[in-house]
Amino acid sequence: MMRDSIVHREIYKEVPPKVEYSLTEFGTSLGPIIVQMLDWGEQYMGQIQEQKWQRISHMTQSTLS
Q1: Where are the alpha helices (DSSP H) in the chain?
Q2: In whole angstroms, how far apart are CA 28 and each of 1, 21, 53?
Q3: What pLDDT, in 10s, does the model give residues 4-32?
Q4: How far apart are CA 60 and CA 64, in angstroms?
Q5: Of 15, 24, 29, 56, whose Cβ has the fewest other Cβ atoms within 10 Å?
Q6: DSSP secondary structure code for residue 5 in this structure
Q7: pLDDT for position 36
Q8: CA nearest 28: which of 54, 1, 53?
Q9: Nearest-angstrom CA–CA distance, 29 and 6
């Protein structure tokens, strides 16, 4: 992400070593996309969890047989 100028890395010559990461202006432009992904996840969380529990249940039943 640093090579793509999404994240900036600041290295300080200190002991102990100190490094800070921050979003660049370009990286900040991803904000609306991340919010859309969050909204999608919240909308489908129940469905995703149900499918997960079905897989776990199926694996458990297969192991017990």
Answers
A1: 25-28, 31-64
A2: 12, 13, 36
A3: 999 999 999 999 999 999 999 999 999 99
A4: 6
A5: 15
A6: T
A7: 98
A8: 1
A9: 9
Structure tokens, 39: 């909204």
Mean pLDDT, the chain, whole residue set: 93
Q: What is the mean pLDDT of residues 30-44?
A: 96
25: which 2 tokens?
């202006």
* CA dist., res. 56 & res. 64, Å (int): 12
Please tell me the distance from the alpha carbon of residue 41 to that of residue 34, in angstroms, as a whole number. 10
Tokens standing for 30? 């991803």
The pTM for the full model equals 0.60
CA–CA distance, 24 with 63 (Å, rounded to integer): 49
